[in-house]
């Protein structure tokens, strides 16, 4: 079977909307990468670009999604976007992301691809150097590279996680759930509406030696019965602003007082904080940003 790979470079302000559309169009897969410069640099352009590189993968017969991608790029950023496509075989589709994914540290963690797990464990002898998280993201969101994931990982290391019950909504690859487990959370529930993400989370849970009694992975979202009925010490939601806004009433109904939100761009932060204040109640505990993305730690009962 063949797949169409489309290499897209799009201005950062359109990346969230474009990713949401890719999900809506149900493409075979897509992911964001860092530090990629395959498209030609425009005259006078800075070395560090404001564009977001995204790889999109389409099934062989999905010409409709390809047409939508080209129309979107021409309509939104005709001068500032770049795209090219090629046919690849199934093996290339499954292995494509490995070229761009190497071990890196963030906060108290080292994020290590599963195909380097054995060599990493043999070479790393000092536990104080960092907590390893072994991840094979496949095509699920959550390689650890994206700013939103890095923001949550950085903050988790500063929280009192041991013994806590955590729910991770929009778990993607499961990287944040695995991180919570490595920090000593007693129970974690990870949910995602994408079945590919569920499979990825299950695989990564097992690669990190975490029992299913400690980290449970389910297909679903804010309305999953285990999410609705459960009581949690912390809710992690690394999801786009549009999804958070659409589910604000469900967020308010969750049986938790402590939230970590990421996936909100800086331009939407004020609106998001106002929604939290009016619908969820409580106050801001901590906030930080990275390259135009926001992390919001929120707690009910805080003023």
From TrEMBL:
Which BP terms does GO give this entry?
A: methylation
Q: Which residues form a coiled coil?
A: none
Regions crossing the membrane: none
Q: Which residues form the signal peptide?
A: none
Alphabetical keyword list: Cytoplasm, Methyltransferase, Ribonucleoprotein, Ribosomal protein, S-adenosyl-L-methionine, Transferase
Q: Would I find Transferase among this entry's keywords?
A: yes
The protein's Enzyme Commission number: 2.1.1.-
Q: What class of enzyme is it?
A: transferase
- Which residues take part in binding S-adenosyl-L-methionine? 149, 170, 192, 238
Specify the domain of life of the species encoding this protein: Bacteria
Fetch the PANTHER family from UniProt: ELECTRON TRANSFER FLAVOPROTEIN BETA SUBUNIT LYSINE METHYLTRANSFERASE
Function statement: Methylates ribosomal protein L11.
Tell me what this protein is called.
Ribosomal protein L11 methyltransferase
Query: Native species of this protein?
Result: Leptospira fluminis
Lineage start: Bacteria, Pseudomonadati, Spirochaetota, Spirochaetia, Leptospirales
């Amino acid at each position: 079977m063949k797949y169409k790979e489309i290499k897209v470079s799009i201005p950062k302000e359109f990346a969230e909307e474009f990713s949401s559309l890719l999900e809506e169009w149900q493409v075979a897969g897509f992911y964001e990468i860092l530090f990629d410069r395959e498209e030609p640099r425009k005259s006078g352009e800075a070395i560090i670009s404001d564009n977001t590189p995204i790889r999109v993968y389409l099934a062989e017969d999905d010409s409709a999604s390809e047409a939508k991608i080209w129309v979107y790029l021409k309509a939104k950023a005709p001068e500032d976007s770049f795209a090219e496509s090629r046919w690849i075989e199934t093996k290339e589709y499954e292995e494509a992301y490995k070229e761009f994914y190497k071990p890196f540290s963030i906060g108290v963690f080292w994020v290590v691809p599963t195909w380097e797990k054995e060599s990493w464990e043999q070479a790393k002898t000092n536990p104080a150097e960092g907590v390893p998280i072994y991840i094979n993201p496949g095509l699920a969101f959550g390689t650890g590279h994206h700013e939103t994931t890095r923001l949550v990982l950085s903050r988790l290391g500063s929280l009192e996680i041991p013994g806590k019950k955590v729910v991770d909504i929009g778990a993607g690859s499961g990287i944040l759930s695995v991180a919570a487990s490595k920090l000593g959370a007693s129970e974690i529930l990870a949910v995602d509406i994408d079945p590919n993400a569920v499979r990825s989370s299950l695989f990564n849970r097992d690669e990190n030696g975490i029992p299913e009694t400690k980290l449970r992975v389910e297909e679903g979202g804010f309305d999953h019965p285990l999410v609705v009925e459960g009581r949690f010490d912390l809710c992690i939601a690394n999801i786009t602003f549009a999804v958070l806004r659409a589910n604000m009433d469900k967020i308010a109904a969750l049986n938790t007082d402590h939230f970590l939100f990421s996936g909100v761009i800086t331009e939407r932060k004020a609106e998001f904080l106002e929604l939290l204040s009016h619908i969820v109640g409580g106050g801001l505990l901590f906030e930080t940003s990275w390259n135009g993305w926001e992390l919001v730690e929120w707690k009910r009962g805080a003023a």
